[in-house]
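Input sequence (291 aa), recorded before submission:
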Amino acid sequence: MRVGTRESKLAMRQTEIFCRRMEEVNPGIECEVVGIKSLGDIDLTSPLNQMSATGAFVRELDDAMLRGEIDCTVNSLKDIPIDVAPGLSVAAVFPRDAVEDVILPCPLEELPAGAKVGTSSVRRVEMLREVRPDLDVVPLRGNIHTRLRRLDDGDFDAIILAKAGLDRMGIDRPMAVLDRHRFIPAPAQGVIAVECRSDDAATLEAVRRLDDRRTRLETGVERGIMKMMGAGCSSPVGINAEADGDTVRVRAVSYGYSEVPRRVERELSVDYVMDELLDIAEYLTARRDSI
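Predicted structure, token format:
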């Protein structure tokens, strides 16, 4: 099985995790890893929110899969556009890892006024400006190691990253976890996903053995709301769903749709209907005043 992935260390690590699990549950299958450079890895100057419509981190992988050069791709689910490319499908999502953002090297409240904080996420920018308008929030692109190096070099007083990526890379250094209920994560944050061609029955059957039901439910809610909002991977929106028994608790925040941020906390049944997600989406986009 030819497995496509970006060439960053984190992407390769996530692909190693996939290959190990794939070979464990599908005896006889051997994975061949194929590294592919994505637009998001090549262009490190353009803001991500200006690149989101192209699927900055997956387009080249999708094209290679559609040409038959690879059989599947491994990505962070939050980087996969809501409208998956025609002819492809998300065959598996792995059990969710840590969903939270972290700030390095110290808690947010310990930063002095005017401290320079680096992040590439407009969602994180808006959350920081809401809580600490006295900070100097500036763009920071690059892979995990590039960002950590720039922090160590003194280019920034602090940076914000996803905890899951640091955990997967085994990076242990001073950091503070941001409260997921206040700093609401991006939809599908902390989840590894696998895409396959929709007509490749053999690969689909093998990959689907890795699919996690709870994570599929939670991310389905998160990405469903985002789709109804018309939002993209780099929109200033946080949505997090937590499944517990027969219920799913949804917390969400949006910026830029109204004069003040809009926040939602709502409990749904696992048998929710799409109109309930639409209610949340319309409130977050200021198309309705209450839910």
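Checked by second reader. The longest strand covers residues 237-244.
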